[in-house]
Amino acid sequence: TPEASAKWRKATGMVSAVNNWRISKADSPNSPRMQAAVGDAASSYELSAAFKSLKLNGEGKADVRELQPAIERIMGSTPDVDVSAALRATGTPAPDARITEAEFTAMVHHLQASRGAGAGGKAAGGSDRPGALNTSKTGSSGALLKVHGTHGGTHSFAEEEKAAFARYISGALSGDADLVHHLPIDSSTLDLFEKVADGIVLCKFVNYAVPDTIDERAINRRGKLNLYQVTENLNLAINAAKAIGCHIVNIDASDIYQGTPHLVLGMVWQVVKIALLSHVNLTEHPQLVVLLEQEEDLSKLMKLPPERVLLRWLNWHLEQAGRAERVNNFGKDVSDSVVYTVLLNRIAPFHAGATLDALSEENLEKRAQSVVRTADAIGGVSFSITAEDIVAGNEKLNMAFVAALFNVHPGLDIVTERQAATMLEEARQVDHSVADPPMSEDESREERAFRMWMNSLGLDKYITNLFDDTRDSVAILQCMDRLKPGLVHWGRVSSRPRTVYETAENGNYTVELGKSPTEGFGLSLVGIQGKDLADGNRKYILAVIWQLMRFHILNFISLTISGAGGAGASAVLSPAGAAVASMPA
Description:
Strand content: under 5%
Strand order of the largest sheet: 3-4-5
Distance between the termini: 25 Å
Order of helices and strands: HHEHHEHEEEHHHHHHHHHHHHHHHHHHH
Helix content: 40-55%
Structural class: mainly alpha
Number of strands: 5
């Protein structure tokens, strides 16, 4: 019930700070109100912890005469603080009364505001002492906000990144009937943190990045959600994000529900990156074969991360345009907008009116504004940035912008798909280390399922191609070690094999552990040798990983049945079947 949810939330201190974060469009990143909002986000747990450190009665109330230690924990030494006045200002009764946690929070906010810092803001005089909770602005652009914890911890997030992600999510998920009350997200305020708090937007966004990652019937999205349903959604989104390759470390449902800025933005950025870069590959754009350098093997190009492919793509267009500039990063090298101006002149359709006139403009911001206008005129560029973002050289936003430009207009028409296919086949004949031709639809579905399972285990290496990334057997051995901690003797493993012999030795050890019924998993690996894994044999790699995944699932079900009192499979399957049957279509 809502009453039970509220009681549970109060008992655990999980109080959402985002409800108090609303600010107007007129508020600048360094305004007192914005700083107060950021301070509130960081201080919700700090205030709760300070209050709970006091001696509370059976109703969870504290004696107002004993508040000084908790106040000092939040604000530092406070000889000039008039607690009685603060209590009267917040409507608290007589000075010998007891107050609740909510009344204590209101009183501390009043005290901080009276000292000229706003709720949760910096104390008068700009003190940065570890005992104070402060927010501050750094950088000449005023876009980087720092959140200072009471114990000296400092986290920062960029206002422009928050705004760009909000715009991107609003555009990507627009039209979804389940999100009519969530979208659009106001990019000028802290609305993003509030809109993702119930997990629905995050689940939908993960599915946008990698379709069908989450069965949407499992998302709680009907009516007003209670805290338990919200937590289910958030855990579902976090686990799905791990499965598609996000590195989620020390982030749980309460962090997102509470709206911790740097953790929320960190997770959102990874999903944004996957959504934009997933199309930068030779499978979807075989024309990328033109990026092969002289004497370079195709396998090397195929193994490049998407970010490096985009840099090559930019440099290829610069070379084709006869320019001397070259790009090595998405920050300083593109901040003068020269590269963007040349690129848009080459890839933009005629109706966008792209020209090189901006190169004669000496003012960098005006030149960047010309780039933004041209990108808007192209249409379909899913990730938008501002002129200030370009000039500031924000690498995240610039990389996302370049990826969006590539996805809509790669400008590789110089090579037809048939010519590209011929070039790829010729390269395969020369370079035998290149993977086999594209998989069938059924093989691709299997590969994706097994790859996502491996990534959900939190391996050291993100698996982008199941067959290429498991040839050295290191990833498979890590899976085995996750399923049976301590099983793998890493002294026998070449973590970075440099020869075919070391790679084959890793494969032999993998097969050995897989077959062993006592020390390993007792898998059926008839006719499979280490060399088969090293050669990237699809059939054998799928056989090994499928059996490991089956072992994992059956072991989980076995543990669940044990927890149900050993009542048998029906203890698990009957409730599951009933739950599936009751789900909306």
